[in-house]
Amino acid sequence: MSVSNRLIYLPLGGAGEIGMNTYVYGYGPEDRERLIVVDLGVTFADMGTTPGIDLIMADVSWLEERADRIEAIFITHAHEDHIGALGHLWPRLKKRVYARRFTAAIGRLKFDELGLPTDVIQTVASRPETIEAGPFRVQFVPVAHSIPESAALIIDTPAGRIVHSGDFKLDPTPIVGEGWSEVLFREIAAETPVKALMCDSTNVFSPHAGRSEASLADPIHGLIAGAGGLVVATTFASNVARLKTLAEAGRAAGRSVCLLGRAMQRMVKVAEETGVLTDFPSTIPVEQAVEVSRQNLMLIVTGSQGERRAATAQLSRGKYLGMELKEGDLFLFSSKTIPGNERDVLRIMNAFSEMGVDVMDDAGGRYHVSGHANRPDLELMHEIIKPQMLIPMHGEHRHLREHVKLGATRGIVGEIATNGMMIDLTGDRPEVAEYVDVGRVYLDGSVLIGAMDGVVRDRIRLALNGHAMVSVILDENDDPLGDAWVELMGLPEIGRSEKPLADLMETELTEVLGSAPAKVMRDDDKLEETVRRIIRQVAVEEIGKKPEVTVVVSRLAEE
Amino acid sequence: MSVSNRLIYLPLGGAGEIGMNTYVYGYGPEDRERLIVVDLGVTFADMGTTPGIDLIMADVSWLEERADRIEAIFITHAHEDHIGALGHLWPRLKKRVYARRFTAAIGRLKFDELGLPTDVIQTVASRPETIEAGPFRVQFVPVAHSIPESAALIIDTPAGRIVHSGDFKLDPTPIVGEGWSEVLFREIAAETPVKALMCDSTNVFSPHAGRSEASLADPIHGLIAGAGGLVVATTFASNVARLKTLAEAGRAAGRSVCLLGRAMQRMVKVAEETGVLTDFPSTIPVEQAVEVSRQNLMLIVTGSQGERRAATAQLSRGKYLGMELKEGDLFLFSSKTIPGNERDVLRIMNAFSEMGVDVMDDAGGRYHVSGHANRPDLELMHEIIKPQMLIPMHGEHRHLREHVKLGATRGIVGEIATNGMMIDLTGDRPEVAEYVDVGRVYLDGSVLIGAMDGVVRDRIRLALNGHAMVSVILDENDDPLGDAWVELMGLPEIGRSEKPLADLMETELTEVLGSAPAKVMRDDDKLEETVRRIIRQVAVEEIGKKPEVTVVVSRLAEE
């Protein structure tokens, strides 16, 4: 091993936020390291900060410029915040993708929809199968999480072994898939000392040890057994284990079970096709469900986060696919509300309340458990892996900071590495090697745009201030041809003086432009500035707001 | 008492939501009842559903049309969700306003700012002082809450006694102001049987008895005594008791205390001027605070909900009024995050984390208590008041529903009365008398607009879809004069074919309009429809989105 080789870690997304996980490892001479990418995830847009945006992902320009140095892409599991950007960003990287069979199957479905080649996604068995990717040797180690076949990665390099935890919890009985195995992880740490543990930080503030997925069966069975009317339950579509627990509880209570929502049906289908799920209770299609009496029926539906078009929201608005909730029914949110979605979820809960439906949620923790390791679980992981260094990931800054502190209590040297911080892991402690320009890219309709392009900023301005459009036509002498025309959108029609606002603006424009100096009238910029000033002045007087203004000056003389 | 008289209750806001409390009581012959109004509050806008809106309040058209029947307005306390609309809606009602001295003083400040007559707000002492308002006799009864001088109202009518709880908690030691007195409420119930209890429902889902404001002193003192660097704490500006506890803890730890934020300074000033607050620790102005070493200083600041312009958010962005947080400082959120504000608050916590500041919040319940009665407290209130009927208020639908159920366990007949449901209380049980059209009114800049006016709907559309403006000029023969002009806002500049989107639209418009049939070209509606269709078609092809389109057709022949 040449002394000039180094081992680097570079988060491009997911470090300093929960979402859009995108991590890079490199090994080799400085600036010529061979690279691997771990996960290409998305984060979700919201009306408040990213109106109209479909998906948010990491800006991978740094990777794109170094595409010839990338050996491979590894996806730890099929949650959208780990795989959601793969199809959108893959055309920029065009490297082989490795994942376990369930994750790979989900990835291929996405590639198929986008018209991308599905054969670049290769299925990998779990350890001891090993992928050689340049200087890296990578193994997938099964961990429990809230989706089938989540994996930690063992990344062996000439500079030492890295354990990339992926999203995990210490659950020996996860209902679907392999449970977490302490023995396995002790073996991994004993086999080769671990240089660095890159570790999930989501629940570092949760003080009690996490609970097993299996612990939910009894409360959920009890709840559904005691229900009189229709039972509807929602959870994350990809939480196949939960779907199974819910469906089994429905069947045990003598109910027919119907899955509503495309995402959920797809997850169950893929889980069955890949052999991950073998004994899911029988379900009936919705066409058949509408014929079943409500006390004998259970619906399991999408939309636990209040998504407008998902089944939960549809049912809260009334009849959906022939189904309608009413007095005496039960609706179970077997899920937690992700911060930012509270208003949407509460709106739905209240709509159900208006229908007389009893709504249960995760208050009290009886009907939902998290998929992430809690604080004591993280401590156990530190103890088992005994890494030389701890680099927290998958967390907001406060999570990363707390996780470094937690590691320090055991004497593990840590580093808060946020997006764009390239960390040199070669020596005895993590060193910041470089700050890489990072950012976000938005999927807007069918186009990828930069977060700083100004498009979203303009949309927010339009939403806050409204829009005034002015058309001014000038003749060959730069004199106004007719009156200026003002169209308003997103603004009150009538203000203080109780006359139409657009009329007042047009009158004022006509007056001012009729007597404006020639140097203003012949200069587009000056003219636009004058028009903008007048529009805003009238608006402030009349409605106390300054709208966005767009001016179109048409000069007929120029024809 | 004539048989034809009736006693009615009509919530116009606050029933089916938490916010904009606006309640009406009436007594008299049907449709000629004399009316009183209790509270005129606001709710806050958010970017997601009400972009650009300053405040949201109940539509009081029903009251305005019956202004001659209104006897008076009563304000229970000075929280914005109870008093915030008073100044904006008073000009429509113009009736005398009654409140306790602290609330009245806050009301007069608001009236003064809006140029309204302050002398219409009359200060009322607490029970036994009684306001005669037509058939109503009203007393203010002190209750503990998270603001000084909150009051329940005893409303005596010829048809019986009503207890309107206001916002309350069962706190005998609220630090500032009178504590809740069980004796007093037992006396009220013993004096005259209570026909109806209109009751705060906010915390009906909180299973444990509420804790006293006084219980926070020890944990807060301990936390601050142990801090090494600068200490900053935030809470709701109007929680004068909390401000006192915080300031005392700071002083006890040998720190100078500085209040940052206009709202907070104003609340303390008014509380002192009205005699509600007598022994607030001495504070120093910010000009002096910048000279104090950080281990000897404590700031108490506004902005616990992450409001952009408040001190907390300002400090999270860097230097503010000469103050700057750094490694080793402590920031305490002595507050809870109101649903919907999570993202803003978390963003700030993470910014502090990046500065190396230790952030404490109400997790674990050590540094914050709620101002509302919890479930067991509500049960005790029911037991004490023994009302014939229970009408829950101050809650979302799910709260009202649960509260009715809770009352039913004690055999009290209840009714879920949401905004617009007029309830006849005259008989032995509440009866829905009528459904009144209700809605919301928005303060937008300086103008009040209806929630259904379409202004906000248009803003949301602009934000989601972006805006394309098209100017088309036609000559006297309805032929296009020059090319169409397209301006885009909030849209990507470049789409699939990598050419400027506006150019592509202009080219397509020129082509289509150049060969459009005369019947299209001479009809504004048909022409606009054609233009809109072309714009959207190009946009869908290029960027996969359908923008909002505004078309300005100028016909020079019409001059």
TrEMBL record, chains A, B:
Pfam families: Lactamase_B, RMMBL, RNase_J_b_CASP, RNase_J_C. This is MBL fold hydrolase. The keyword Repeat does not apply. Gene3D superfamilies: 3.10.20.580, Metallo-hydrolase/oxidoreductase, Ribonuclease Z/Hydroxyacylglutathione hydrolase-like. The keyword DNA repair does not apply. GO terms for molecular function: exonuclease activity; metal ion binding; RNA binding. Signal peptide: none annotated. Residues 19-208 form the Metallo-beta-lactamase domain. It comes from Gemmobacter aquaticus. Keywords: Exonuclease, Hydrolase, Metal-binding, Nuclease, RNA-binding, Zinc.
